Amino acid sequence: MTFSVKSTIKVGDDSLETINTLGAKKIFFITDPFVVESRMIDQVINLLDKSVNYTIFSEIRPDPDQELVDNGKSVLKNFNPDLVIAIGGGSAIDATKAIIYNIYKERGEKIPFIAIPTTAGTGSEATNFAVVTVGDSKKVLIDDLMLPDYALLVAKFTKTVPNFITADTGMDVLTHALEAYISKNASIYTDTFAETCIKTVFEILPKVYDDGDRLSLRERMLEVSNIAGIAFNNAGLGINHSLAHTIGGNFHISHGRLNAILLPYVLDYNCKNDERARKKLDSLAKKLGHNDYTCIIKEIEKLNKKFKIPEKLSGLGKIDARNYANAIDKMADTALNDRCTPTNPALVTKFDLANILRDSF
């Protein structure tokens, strides 16, 4: 059993002061257009020493693809920075990881990297995972080279996030924690982190959804998003993510929302087909004041209802039923071979995955 936390994590507005302590002379910022247009990035740039030269690559969009990664890599190489800073949600941080990884494969050197998340959800600032869209599928990259050197958690940067994104990303946190908790590679260390995350999300995510100005609660969501990332970076995930990856790659739906819809179906499958997973979730349910794992599923369904997340994928109104039916075989095959599937607690076949895809639609 191994457990590691390789990124330095700092919380609060003053964590931004870390940037000037690293002695960087050329900083390459990677972000999305909103972070620039909202002037959020100015709150970081205004803190830089006067001698620092910087440039901003702000072309990040949801579900970054290989073309975007290649473009960012080209711009970065031309600027030749000594520090890279990603500011944004999971897409910005994942794209930055993929860019850095591709640069390493060419040059054999890792550029120092700071991640500043603007959503409490993916935990990408604490993981060696990156997801890049390639054609109609999502490719999962896993390599410690992509771990940020520093994760700076600043609650005010999540304040502008609308409540539906707060919900989607928060449900992503819950999915990370639950999948890590019942993963084949779970340990006492990852269980401790995951339990804290699960309890906190159930308690405070509805409050942040109702009132996004509660910065102390937003900070707690950033913290549990980060430690859920640490948990699954060590324990792995499962078929909830495998299925969300392939559905998202084919139909371009929010990753967090897909995870939220799939979660009751996947937990039910895992608990009915793996005794260890069922016992762990039964035990967790009792710690949360419930009877058994079915109560956890019901609590997830209550959250989804509050957040206006439908029970079925068809309720999204964005997926053509015929196209979905025609894609099930391909999606099941892709999910079976996804890098998150091996640590799923219950054994799965392509047939099982196809059934979950049908049931959840």
TrEMBL record:
Q: According to the UniProt entry, where is the signal peptide?
A: none
Which of UniProt's keywords are assigned here? Oxidoreductase
Return the SUPFAM superfamilies for the record. Answer: Dehydroquinate synthase-like
Where the record annotates domain Alcohol dehydrogenase iron-type/glycerol dehydrogenase GldA, the positions are 17-153
Fe-containing alcohol dehydrogenase-like C-terminal domain residues are 166-360
Kindly indicate whether the keyword DNA-binding belongs to this entry: no
Instruction: Indicate yes or no for the key word Nucleotidyltransferase.
Output: no
What Pfam family is a match for this entry?
ADH_Fe_C
* Similarity section: Belongs to the iron-containing alcohol dehydrogenase family.
In its UniProt entry, what is this protein called? Iron-containing alcohol dehydrogenase
